[in-house]
Specification:
Shape: globular
Order of helices and strands: EEHHHEEEHEEEH
Strand content: 25-35%
Number of domains: 1
Structural class: alpha/beta
Strand order of the largest sheet: 2-1-3-4-5-6-8-7
Radius of gyration: 16 Å
Length: 163
Amino acid sequence: MVQRIYRIPRVTKPGVPLSAYEDTHAFKLYILDTGLLGALSGLDVRTLLEGNRVFEEFKGVLGEQYVLRQLVSEHSIKPFYWSAERADAEVDFLFQSGSHVVPLEVKAAANLKAKSLRRYSEKYSPPVALRTSLSDYRKDSGLINVPLYALICIPEIIATNYG
């Protein structure tokens, strides 16, 4: 049976197993695919092509949707998300790789600011934090930027950096 909606639970702490730290009252919902999300939202095609101000808000949602589909369908990853107790920081996706928890922040443009991911990294000290965006691959002080087109390489990047 094809899953049409993905329920991504919040975790209160990035511990292993992630499911043990699930907050059963907080979750995000994602739809089957990015095209359906655009159609159901009533997003005008001109908005996508022209990149107007309205789209600036929504492209983050489309970016997260795209990344989720890649994680789930290409890599069979069960994702979670993390947010600070005061809800002033949020990491879009967390997932387990062996005995490690991997944080992944999604940026829909070439914007490389990832304040929430830096805050998460300062608090929990993961070996490497991942960010995906429209920018090129780069590794900088424990933060790896993975271009959106290179999400297929996530297993290799994790294997190389998490051991």
